[in-house]
Amino acid sequence: MITRDRRSPRDERHRRLRRWVRGSAERPRLAVFRSANHIYAQLVDDETGRTLVATDSRSKAFLATHRTGGNVSAAKAVGELLAQKAKASGIERIVFDRGGFKYHGRVKALADAARAGGLVF
What is the pTM of this model? Predict the structure, then answer.
């Protein structure tokens, strides 16, 4: 019986994107990961391999105002939280890494909310 690997096509798309998308201390990479129930976002400096700012739909700040993390409104809230944390850390310019996911739905909502929060990419 042949089974279909559901993750490898996304991994291939992500590898293709990462050839061009690199984060630095001046302009970190906004890496997005979404699962069925949650969405995660972090700002990464690829030169040093460090995560500068991270937030997700499991954090206390998020759960104080929302019940679930697997929808578009949750992604908007995570994008706003990330923008606030980035501004507090002095980060304004970033590069966006959609992680092999389509720029649609929750990924797009997170990116739009981060832009509305003041991040430039």
Answer: 0.90
Residue 42 has a CB neighbour count (10 Å cut-off) of 18
Amino acid identity, position 36: A
- Whether residue 107 contacts residue 98, with contact meaning beta carbons closer than 8 Å, is answered with yes
The mean per-residue pLDDT over the stretch 11-17 comes to 91
22-73 per-position pLDDT tens digit: 999 999 999 999 999 999 999 999 999 999 999 999 999 999 999 999 999 9
Q: Where are the beta strands (DSSP E) in 19-107?
A: 29-34, 39-45, 50-56, 95-97
What residues contact residue 19 under an 8 Å CB cut-off, 6+ apart? none
Query: Which pair of tokens denotes residue 107?
Result: 């990924």
Q: Which of 91, 78, 84, 100 is nearest to 52 (CA)?
A: 91
Please provide residue 40's backbone torsions phi and psi, each rounded to the nearest 5 degrees.
Answer: -125, 145
In angstroms, how far is the first alpha carbon of the chain from the final one? 45
Backbone dihedral angles phi then psi of residue 13, each to the nearest 5 degrees? -65, -40
